[in-house]
């Protein structure tokens, strides 16, 4: 038979052969036999669509370009547009081959540069945290891309004007009236939108940036405010992860839902927290208002109560609370010592009184037995028959009388000594009571001017230095010395000199910010601690104080007296103790005196040290 040539003949022959060869008539057997008869090659089996889609989904979308091409491929497959799908796939493959090798050297150099930089919203702690997270990437490509994104975020953040890079003098506003809370919480603050998303970025980059921003906020910012709600912290972290891996619209929609739910829970939690805070504050107020009903003698607590009332009446700042707790602890310590002395003195008084009563009792006993013996002598004398018997009895009477006289004298001396000791003890108890009352107010303050004394100054300096270091902000110290104070004392009297010191402290305190501290360093020398202040601003502050002192006269009776001072200001360099800083300020103050008084001199050395002045 002639070879079948047209398709219907081949098909017929194929069916015949299947029957003759007793081959099961499956589509595969039919196809194989058909090609055998036609002498053709079977076409490659069509690839199932599901399989193609799966491959498309697995394509890495780790750059904006690859994301765009992969999306085009998805769309072409959805629309069953094979031509468009092929084109998208070709371009995708070309993007892979065109990829430059990752320039790790450049990336690391940029990392070093950006690490040193001072970007708004990116404190060192926050940088370290985000870097650690990026370093957790599972493969080098992801690591490279994430690191790139992170550095782009750092690089796009505006320069932080309050945190100088090395070599810059930071420019702070003249009166940094910023509440402390804001400063303390600056570290975990969310980066500004501009820090992650440039306005001219393409939409894909914008979405990437926004996703990263949401993830960072959930991961690093929120936990700082949710310390008491660990379950919310772990949910926030889960959402951060979900946000990072949400690459298509559906996944983003899921994240959106989670975020909405989470925001609602946050709202409820915040409302509960604020209710608790308000409740506690009310409780404290109630306690403070009624303290006199609760304790028998509230005199010793006067200072502490006043301070606590001050705190609850004003909006509290960490600095205020820190200061108050330090002062409370100190007064509590001093008072516990005084109370110990007081109870010792009271015990002594009690013992003395007991001794006094014992002595009286034994004296009464001796006089009682003397009385008995005298009675027996009298009876013996009455019964005596001759004078020799009476002489013997008289000797006995004399001896007993002398003994009782000696004993009476001794008792009198003892009693008057005991009385004196009791009076002394009473006096001591009185003075301890007074000290207890004063301890509440005077522990850290100079009694004449009410400003801090040296001890108070040292404590404030240590606290401010630590704070400045922690927040990487400058800290300045000024030493001022009243000009020609000896002359003022000599011409107007020592009392007027004292009044002048009080006047100066009042004017200075009234013209400083609440966070600044004035301390009397000794004699007519004062120290001012200026937190979060650059050297230049510190100098300006001192000049302003000088002006203020010439404006607000000191009145010595009817006489107007202008008080001036010379000052040295310096910035604290990292790690410096108060002695080192004050020695520098003192040298500058000396220079101010030498160059004509009523001046402020900035310490030159500190300017260099001030590069790291925190
Ligand atoms: N009234 C009064 N005088 C004090 C007090 N402490 C120190 N002084 C006096 O302050 C004076 C300081 O004198 P000096 O050290 O010569 O300084 P000055 O006269 O101000 O001279 P310059 O510092 O060079 O301007 C001394 O006479 C001290 O007795 C105080 O608490 N009250």
From TrEMBL:
| UniProt-listed Pfam families | GGDEF (PF00990)
Give the span(s) annotated as Disordered. 157-181
Q: Which InterPro entries match?
A: Diguanylate_Cyclase, GGDEF_dom, Nucleotide_cyclase, Rev_trsase/Diguanyl_cyclase
Which molecular function GO terms apply here? diguanylate cyclase activity
Q: What SUPFAM superfamilies does the database record attribute to this sequence?
A: Nucleotide cyclase
UniProt KW keywords: Coiled coil
Q: Where along the sequence do coiled-coil regions lie?
A: 59-86, 415-442
EC number(s) recorded for this UniProt protein: 2.7.7.65
Q: Which domain of life is it from?
A: Bacteria
Ranges for domain GGDEF: 473-605
Q: Its catalytic activity? A: 2 GTP = 3',3'-c-di-GMP + 2 diphosphate
Q: Which PANTHER family match?
A: DIGUANYLATE CYCLASE DGCM-RELATED (PTHR45138:SF9), REGULATORY COMPONENTS OF SENSORY TRANSDUCTION SYSTEM (PTHR45138)
- Name it: diguanylate cyclase
Species whose genome carries this gene = Parazoarcus communis
| Lineage of the species this protein comes from | Bacteria, Pseudomonadati, Pseudomonadota, Betaproteobacteria, Rhodocyclales
